[in-house]
Design goal:
Helix content: 25-40%
Number of strands: 2
Largest sheet: 2 strands, antiparallel
Radius of gyration: 17 Å
Distance between the termini: 35 Å
Order of helices and strands: HHEE
Structural class: alpha+beta
Number of helices: 2
Strand order of the largest sheet: 1-2
Low-confidence stretches: 105-113
Strand content: 15-25%
Mean pLDDT: 83
């Protein structure tokens, strides 16, 4: 996937990215949206139906809100909303329970419990 340099410059200008701190904050926002979208997709796969698609539902399990989780990334800490299901058997692949660092981060935490 290639990024158009001019489009990227325009986006960074629109978002007010003028320093490395601004860039890190912007990347935390982007990372949060991407990870939460992936988690929603994983829950959809787990349940077997799209959100609000109860007519095609072949399970008695359902979405049941979100659980807050803080993970560390190379851009700083990110507060995620991890979706959950009523039966509590959904285990996200991209944000496993006990993991405090994002897959792309090189730093590892010796403490493996999520805050929240």
């Amino acid at each position: 996937m290639a990024l158009d340099r001019d489009e990227l410059k325009k986006l960074l200008k629109e978002k007010g990215v003028k320093s490395l701190d601004d860039f890190n904050a912007f990347m935390r926002e982007v990372s949060k949206e991407v990870v939460e979208t992936i988690l929603d997709g994983e829950l959809t796969d787990h349940l077997g139906y799209e959100k609000h698609g109860q007519k095609t539902k072949a399970t008695d399990n359902a979405r049941n809100g979100f659980t807050p989780k803080t993970v560390k990334s190379k851009f700083g800490e990110i507060d995620l909303e991890v979706p959950r299901d009523r039966k509590s058997d959904f285990e996200p692949r991209s944000s496993r329970s006990g993991r405090r660092t994002s897959p792309g981060s090189k730093r590892r935490s010796s403490r493996c419990t999520p805050r929240g």
